[in-house]
Amino acid sequence: MPQLLPSLIGLPYDASSSYIRGPAQAPPHIRAALHSSHWNTSTEGGYELSPEKLRDRGDLRLPASAEARLQIENGIAALIADGSGPLALGGDHSVSYPILRAVSRSHPPLTILHLDAHPDLYDEFEGDRFSHACPFARIMEEKLAERLVQVGIRTMNDLQQRQVERYRVQVIDMRSWVSGNRPQVDGPVYLSVDLDVLDPAFAPGVSHREPGGLSVREVLTLVQETGGTLVGADVVEYNPRQDLGGITATVAAKIVKEIAGRMLAEGGR
Questions:
Q1: pLDDT tens digit string along 110-140?
Q2: Cis peptide before 75 (omega within 30 of 0)
Q3: How far apart are alpha carbons 48 and 139 in whole angstroms?
Q4: Alpha-carbon distance 224 to 45, whole Å?
Q5: At what angle do helices 96-106 and 67-81 cross, to 10 degrees?
């Protein structure tokens, strides 16, 4: 498998959000936290995130319409063609679907590790098949991944449970997590981090707060220690309008740092 240098790309899109808009404003806030002088550029593993090692491709200019999906897919495909591993800053979670359309072509057989309070497996939500509540239904029906492993779920209803069974999704919900169940993945892995996987005490700046979630340290441990080789990732659903004192922006930036550090470690950089 070719070794990939991580590249940031902002996806300022939230037209598929179903509740509180705001994630389209997230990428510059995460970048500002990432480059803040309150900390240094080193990851916990000792990797320095210089501009040469963590390249920043800026933000795509995305319309608030269906055309954004094709633009995201093409933008991610261009990064991959240039030898980069995409590290996308959302944006609502609907952006994962066009990202995976590009990533899956280059990295079969792909496993998705999806950290979220919500399964995002609705076939359609409020009449929209491309809602941020639906991306993993689209991903699995198109067979863009061989496996989907979801961690942190705590909002499963009967409809989504049927989708879990239909697509053979492995779900480690919070009760199972507390009992000690952990994901086992290998091969090429795409990591999708919805920040509402975290308990709102750690990340209040999300649109859909759901108490009873993971801690920041638990998410970082998943990033750092889960098996497989990271070929791309997204960090989505940060809503600056809901944040308190930039807490969630800083948490998002920390997660981004550790994802980048892992990709560098796996690339021998």
A1: 999 999 999 999 999 999 999 999 999 999 9
A2: no
A3: 34
A4: 9
A5: 30
Question: In angstroms, how far is CA 134 from the centroid of its own chain?
Answer: 14
E-strand ranges in the chain read 5-11, 55-59, 84-90, 111-115, 147-153, 170-173, 188-194, 229-236
Strand ranges in 83-123 using DSSP code E only, listed in sequence order: 84-90, 111-115
In angstroms, the CA 124 to CA 36 distance is: 39
| CB of 154 closer than 8 Å to CB of 210 | yes
Q: Is there a contact between 87 and 6 (Cβ–Cβ < 8 Å)?
A: yes
151 in Cβ contact with 192 (< 8 Å):
no
Both structure tokens of 7: 């590249």
Considering only CA atoms, give the Rg of the chain: 17
Q: What 3-state DSSP class applies to 7?
A: strand
Give the span between the Cα atoms of 40 and 29, in whole angstroms.
17
- Six-digit token string for 133: 């509540």
d(CA 249, CA 125): 28
Question: How does pLDDT run across 138-191, given as a tens digit for each residue?
Answer: 999 999 999 999 999 999 999 999 999 999 999 999 999 999 999 999 999 999
